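Run log, item B.
One chain of 163 residues. Sequence copied directly from the ordering sheet:
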Amino acid sequence: MNQIDTFDRLMPKYLQYFIDGYNTNVLAYGQTGTGKTFSMVAPAGLVKKNMHPGDSIPDEFGLFLRTCLTLYHQLKDSKDSLMTMQANEIGMMELRDLLNKQPLKIDDAKNELIGSEEVIINSVDDIMKVAYQVENERYSAATAMNLNSSRCHAMVSFRRYRK
């Protein structure tokens, strides 16, 4: 199954839920080296090669990129929407923002993440800049099974605020 087939089989109902105003989440879970990053983002280095995809979505883009770009194209002309993204990472006993490269804190009383940068999405280029930063700022180290394991868990949020 390729990236397009995976997206077409899994995502349409979740895209509609998101557009209808519901929170949706997609999670990749599995052993090191099983293709989580490939399935969610893209093969290594592909984001940098496709920084300006225009209206097309490269076939190799995974669920995260394909979902963000599809939602952007569906909502970009909506006068009542503001779209934003955040990118954070947890691992190695740290919680950090991948966009401003700062450590984060959790306010337990408010159940809120403190210090996470939220960027406004006005174009496909804005999405690709976030994806590029995620790809380049994630912590990685070699393991016995994978020479470039992420060793951490990325959490990328795509939000729609209605005006």
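Observations after the first pass:
- Residues 3-162 form a domain with the Kinesin fold (CATH 3.40.850.10).
- Confidence is low (pLDDT under 50) at residues 141-146.
Flagged for discussion on Thursday.
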